[in-house]
Amino acid sequence: MYGRKVKLRFLFIIIILITLILTTFLILKSLEENVVYFQSPSEIKSLIEIDKSKIRVGGMVKKNSISISSNEVNFIITDFKNEINVTYSGAVPNLFAEGKGVVAEGFLKDRNFFSATKILAKHDENYMPPEVKEALGEK
Question: What is the fold, at CATH topology level, of the domain defined by 37-136?
Answer without folding.
Answer: OB fold (Dihydrolipoamide Acetyltransferase, E2P) (2.40.50)
